[in-house]
Amino acid sequence: MRERTTELKNGRTLPIRRKDLSVWQKAYIPEIVKGLTLTLRQMFRPKFTREYPEERWEPTGAFRGRPVLVSESGTERCVACGLCARVCPALAIFVQAEETSREKERRPKVFEIDMLRCIFCGFCEEVCPEEAIVMSKDFEVVFADRRKSIFEREKLLMPMEELMDRLDFLHRCR
Amino acid sequence: MDYLIILIKIVVVMGIQLLSCAILVYFERRIAGFIQNRLGPNRVGPQGILQPFADVLKLVLKEDITPTAANRTVHDLAPIISLAVAFSAYAVIPFGNTINLFGREIPLVIADINVGILYILALSSIGVYGITLSGWSSNNKYSLLGGMRSSAQMISYELPMGVSLLGVLLIAGTLRLGGIVAAQSGWHWNVFLQPLGFITFLVASFAETNRLPFDLPEAEPELVGGYHTEYSGLKFGAFFLAEYANMITAAGIITTFYLGGWQFPYLETFGLPAFWVSIIQVLSFVVKVVALLFFFIWVRWTIPRFRYDQLMNLGWKVMLPLALLNLLGTALWITLF
Fold first, then answer.
1. Is the CB of B298 less than 8 angstroms away from the CB of A32?
2. Is B37's Cβ below 8 Å from some Cβ in A?
3. I want to staple A61 with a disulfide (CB 3.0 to 4.6 A). Which of A132, A165, B17, B337 is the partner?
4. A11: containing domain
5. Strand A157-159 relative to strand B98-101: parallel, antiparallel, unpaired?
6. pTM assigned to the model
7. Do A49 and B39 touch (CB under 8 A)?
8. Contact at CB, A43 and B31, closer than 8 angstroms
């Protein structure tokens, strides 16, 4: 490393730090050959590409996928308190309550999430006092019609057994 | 009858060239993927081999936009010039010696004209017009900058290209490409006789084809798309095709001038029938061209782009003196021995 200086307009001098190249490096062609061998070696290395539809990725419990209603032995845990609808920053959730004869006297008559609005923030899950709405591992939310973007109660219910990873994660980390 | 044969040759060569452009695009993307530890396109058809045809279909279906401020005539003309030049340069390159079909000796070159080298140099100079005009007529500052860079780059690199070709001329003593190939029989390939000239010519042809270490006319990060920023649809496709056709032509030219063209060393000593000798010679040409094309792609995904002043420095201060040195050395060799 050799010190060189440059003079600025205001009279100050600043050092330029420039690496001195050897003659071999200045000839450039040996360096090109080095680069070429490197890229050629890379060609035969294993690839990082995951060929998605065939080769699937299994998310961990920490993954925030599509929000679902936890269904415990056939019925939902939700008591239709409406906190999720209140906290939802995208106004994607609509809840309408109804009375039942079960031990928990309320249940949602209508529970809709507009999946075009949902931003997967997980606030609904965070605010839920019953741990009734959680983020699932499902990241493949597909519909071909705007009307089908509104997922209603039946579509949102998911058996608790399929959500154990997420529930464990919530118990551990929250 | 002779005209018919020439017509058939034109159709076959054009067809093969168009097809190999498509395959080349596929290989470019695939090799790029492999070098970057990716897979590249592998979905359309077996191993993705039909990908370029899907791309062409997409380009055909796209809207063809001409900016309102553009000069319409020139804007339309520029891709035509690029494409026509890219394809016509191939006419003089011999891809085989002669082949005996149905009792006729057919020379395997479309036009073996006696000023072949001049024809190629002239066409590559015209090729600049396509790029410069497209840059100017788009009425866009980035396009204009791309076009200007292209003309400056071509002028700087045509000189070392021509001078290094003079070395080949001195050895062969003819401007006819057939004669140049014939002078490289056995192992007398020009790449071994004048490696310096080969390197300067190779680097210059990278610059002439606007391939990566010298793709300043396009220069995505600084010039958006360079000269073809304002092109879309089939007119963009024409530039794209011209780039790859230029690559194939450049590989053919390098093969002809420096790698012995269709020559296969000591093939005549094997005592094969004449027909198979012709076939092997054509194959040897094809193999050399394919190897060079791989090299073009390989270099593109290895070396970063030059800065503009570095490009000019390299062209005028390094390449030209080296080419002149090569010319001088060749001339001395010929006079002394």
1. no
2. yes
3. A165
4. 2-43
5. unpaired
6. 0.82
7. yes
8. yes
